[in-house]
């Protein structure tokens, strides 16, 4: 997605549901570059892995999604969307990976999802070039487009800014709440009746406070 406020892409990725020994060949055919983030789709879905070399790919456990790692200065932006309301919070993330890391590291580095509330970076003393939030107009366009295409009212996305750029962003993950989509309007109306001037923003604050991801 492109606009005057910035560019939003999704990293190159590959769905894998085959024998682990065939993963390196599948990665080559798909044109993905190491390192790769491995996201399991079933058990331990909150545990991610970073694979540095082709051999480490054979140690992964499908089904999973492999996603190219994009350097982003160790900070990601969690964007919560409820109806037309948008709220962004910063979270610490993985540090940049350079050529030396690729040469000196092998195997699979496992880590929990780093977007939890305990990893908040909102109050940290960060480089402004890294910590600057995505432009509001860009987020509004993105949220509107996702609502239109997916039919969702309640969801959140994880965004990163490509390191060394100001306006190049990637959506690296998305979470939604299937059981609440049809109820969100009624919930907002009920909250409004209890005196909350902006019920969607109130719901957002509750989600951010309680969210495990």
UniProtKB/TrEMBL annotation:
InterPro entries: Inositol_tetrakis-P_1-kinase (IPR008656), InsP(3)kin_ATP-grasp (IPR040464). Its cofactor is Mg(2+). Its EC number is 2.7.1.159. It is an enzyme of class 2 (transferase). Residues 4-181 form the Inositol 1,3,4-trisphosphate 5/6-kinase ATP-grasp domain. GO terms for biological process: inositol trisphosphate metabolic process. Belongs to the ITPK1 family. Monomer. This is inositol-1,3,4-trisphosphate 5/6-kinase.
């Amino acid at each position: 997605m492109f606009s005057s406020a910035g560019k939003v892409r999704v990293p190159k990725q590959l769905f894998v549901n085959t024998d682990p020994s065939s993963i390196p060949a599948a990665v080559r055919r798909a044109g993905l570059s190491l390192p790769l983030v491995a996201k399991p789709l079933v058990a331990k879905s909150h545990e991610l892995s970073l694979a540095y070399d082709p051999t480490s790919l054979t140690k992964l456990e499908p089904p999973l999604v492999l996603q190219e790692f994009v350097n982003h200065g160790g900070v990601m932006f969690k964007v919560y969307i409820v109806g037309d309301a948008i709220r962004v919070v910063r979270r610490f993330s993985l540090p940049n990976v350079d050529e030396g890391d690729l040469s000196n590291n092998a195997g699979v580095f496992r880590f929990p999802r780093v977007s939890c509330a305990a990893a908040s970076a909102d109050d940290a003393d960060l480089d402004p070039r890294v910590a600057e939030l995505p432009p509001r107009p860009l987020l509004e366009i993105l949220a509107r487009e996702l609502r239109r295409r997916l039919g969702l009212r309640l969801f959140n996305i994880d965004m990163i800014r490509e390191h060394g750029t100001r306006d190049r962003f990637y959506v690296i993950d998305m979470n939604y709440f299937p059981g609440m989509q049809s109820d969100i309007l009624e919930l907002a109306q009920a909250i409004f009746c209890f005196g909350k001037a902006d019920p969607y923003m109130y719901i957002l604050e509750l989600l951010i406070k309680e969210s495990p991801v």
